[in-house]
C-alpha cells in the first residue's frame, strides 16, 4: 500500500528492459510528433485571426494587441496546473486535457463573434493559449524515458515538428472562410473550425497513443529500483538547485529577447513601407529559424554538451541584436536579423530545456518543467509589453540595444558554470 509520500505510478505489463525501453521511447516520440503537428495546425489556423477579431469586437485597433497578450497569459496560467496533472495522472491525461481546453477556446471564439462579445473573445484566446502550453509540455514529455545520450535530440525532434503545423495553420485562413460560409459561421471564424478539429484530434492522439504513459512509467521504474519521495514545488527547487535556476533563467531570458524583437518587427516593417506579403514572408523565415534546425541543435547538445550550445545560441542572439541595432530599416537586414534571432532562440531553448529535464530527479521533473514554462511565458509577455514603448522611443535600433543585457546575463552565467563555479 502506498503512503502519502508516494506518487502513484501506472503499472506496466512488461519489464522495462533496454529493448522495451527503446521501443517505447520511439513510439512516444512518434505520438508526440503527431500531436504537435495537430496542435500547431490548431494554433496557427486561429491565432493569426485573434488581432483582427479583437479590433473588430472592441471597435478599436488599439485593442488588437490583446490577442497575443491573452494567449500568452493563458499559456502561463495553465502551465503549472498541467504539470501537476501530469505528475498525478501522467502526460497522457495532461496533454489531452490541454488540447481539449484549446478546442473549447475555439468554440468560444466562434460564439464570441456570433454574440458580439469582446470579453468572451478574450476568454477564448486565453483557453487557446492552453494549446501553446500543451505544445510546450510535449517537448518535455519526450525526455521522460529518454537516455541522457539522446535526451536533447528527442526533445528537439518534437520541437521541430511544430514547424509543420506552424506553416500549415496560417494557410488555412482561406479554406476556413469557405468552410465557415458552408457551415453558416460568422465571417473570419471558419478557421476556428479547423482549430477545433485539430485540437480534438490531438487530444485523442495523446489519450490513445501514450499507453503506457511515459512519465508514469519512468516514475514506476524509479519506485521499483530506489523508492520515490514527494515531489517538490518549482520555487523550492529553484531555491536549492543552482543548475535548475540557471536552466530556467536561460530559457526565460532567451524567450524574452526573441519575443521583444519579433513582436515589433511587423510594426517596424509596415512603418517602412513593407507589404503584408513581405511581412508574412519575413515572419515565416523567422519561425523556420526557430524550429527547422532544432534537431541539429539537439544533436549538438548531446555531443558537445548543453553549455556550449547555449553559448552558441546566445552568440546567434547577439548577432541578431547587433544587426537590429545597426539596421537602416531595410527589409533585407530585418529579415537577416530575425533569422538569426530564431536560430539563437532554438539553440538556447533546446539545450536549456534538456538541462531543465536533467537538473532534478524524475519525481521533481514535471514541477520544474511547469514552472519553467510559466516563467518562459511570463518573460515573453513582459518582453513584448516593454518592447512597444522602447520601439516608440528609440526605434528598432534602440530595441536591439536594449535587449543586449539579457544576452549578457546568460553569457556571464554560462561562463561561470563552465569554469566550475556552479553559480
UniProtKB/TrEMBL annotation:
The keyword Metal-binding does not apply. The keyword Transmembrane helix applies. It is a multi-pass membrane protein. Signal peptide: none annotated. InterPro entries: MFS, MFS_dom, MFS_trans_sf. Residues 28-420 form the Major facilitator superfamily (MFS) profile domain. Gene3D superfamilies: MFS general substrate transporter like domains (1.20.1250.20). GO terms for cellular component: plasma membrane. Keywords: Membrane, Transmembrane, Transmembrane helix. Its main location: membrane. The chain crosses the membrane at residues 31-55, 61-83, 95-115, 121-142, 154-173, 185-208, 246-267, 273-293, 305-326, 338-362, 374-392, 398-416. It comes from the Bacteria. It is found in: Cell membrane. One of its GO terms (molecular function) is transmembrane transporter activity. PANTHER family: MAJOR FACILITATOR SUPERFAMILY PROTEIN, MFS PERMEASE. This is MFS transporter. It comes from Cryobacterium serini. The lineage of its organism: Bacteria, Bacillati, Actinomycetota, Actinomycetes, Micrococcales.
Amino acid at each position: 500500500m502506498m503512503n502519502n509520500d508516494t506518487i502513484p505510478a501506472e503499472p506496466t505489463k512488461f519489464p522495462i528492459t533496454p529493448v522495451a525501453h527503446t521501443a517505447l521511447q520511439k513510439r512516444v516520440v512518434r505520438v508526440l510528433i503527431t500531436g504537435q503537428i495537430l496542435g500547431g495546425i490548431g494554433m496557427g489556423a486561429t491565432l493569426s485571426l485573434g488581432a483582427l477579431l479583437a479590433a473588430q469586437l472592441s471597435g478599436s485597433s488599439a485593442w488588437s494587441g490583446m490577442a497575443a497578450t491573452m494567449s500568452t497569459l493563458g499559456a502561463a496560467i495553465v502551465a503549472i496546473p498541467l504539470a501537476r496533472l501530469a505528475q498525478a495522472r501522467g502526460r497522457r491525461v495532461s496533454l489531452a486535457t490541454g488540447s481539449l481546453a484549446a478546442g473549447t477556446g475555439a468554440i468560444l471564439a466562434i460564439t464570441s463573434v456570433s454574440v458580439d462579445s469582446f470579453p468572451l473573445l478574450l476568454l477564448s484566446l486565453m483557453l487557446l493559449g492552453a494549446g501553446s502550453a500543451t505544445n510546450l509540455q510535449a517537448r518535455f514529455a519526450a525526455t521522460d524515458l529518454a537516455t541522457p545520450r539522446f535526451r536533447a535530440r528527442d526533445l528537439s525532434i518534437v520541437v521541430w515538428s511544430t514547424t509543420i503545423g506552424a506553416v500549415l495553420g496560417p494557410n488555412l485562413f482561406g479554406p476556413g472562410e469557405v468552410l465557415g460560409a458552408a457551415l453558416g459561421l460568422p465571417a473570419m471564424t471558419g478557421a476556428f473550425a479547423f482549430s477545433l478539429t485539430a485540437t480534438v484530434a490531438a487530444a485523442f492522439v495523446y489519450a490513445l497513443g501514450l499507453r503506457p504513459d511515459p512519465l508514469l512509467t519512468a516514475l514506476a521504474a524509479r519506485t521499483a529500483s530506489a523508492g520515490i519521495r514527494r515531489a517538490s514545488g518549482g520555487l523550492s527547487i529553484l531555491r536549492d538547485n543552482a543548475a535548475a535556476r540557471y536552466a530556467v533563467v536561460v530559457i526565460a531570458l532567451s524567450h524574452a529577447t526573441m519575443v521583444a524583437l519579433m513582436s515589433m518587427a511587423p510594426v517596424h516593417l509596415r512603418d517602412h513601407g513593407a507589404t503584408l506579403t513581405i511581412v508574412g514572408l519575413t515572419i515565416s523565415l523567422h519561425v523556420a529559424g526557430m524550429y527547422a534546425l532544432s534537431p541539429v541543435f539537439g544533436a549538438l547538445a548531446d555531443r558537445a554538451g548543453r553549455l556550449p550550445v547555449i553559448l552558441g545560441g546566445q552568440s546567434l542572439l547577439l548577432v541578431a541584436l547587433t544587426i537590429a541595432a545597426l539596421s537602416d530599416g531595410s527589409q533585407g537586414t530585418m529579415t537577416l536579423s530575425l533569422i538569426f534571432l530564431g536560430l539563437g532562440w532554438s539553440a538556447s531553448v533546446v539545450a536549456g530545456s534538456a538541462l531543465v529535464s536533467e537538473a532534478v530527479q524524475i519525481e521533481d521533473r514535471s514541477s520544474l518543467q511547469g514552472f519553467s514554462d510559466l516563467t518562459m511565458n511570463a518573460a515573453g509577455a513582459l518582453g513584448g509589453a516593454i518592447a512597444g514603448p522602447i520601439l516608440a522611443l528609440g526605434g528598432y535600433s534602440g530595441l536591439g540595444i536594449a535587449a543586449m543585457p539579457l544576452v549578457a546575463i546568460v553569457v556571464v552565467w554560462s561562463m561561470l558554470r563552465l569554469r566550475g563555479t556552479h553559480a
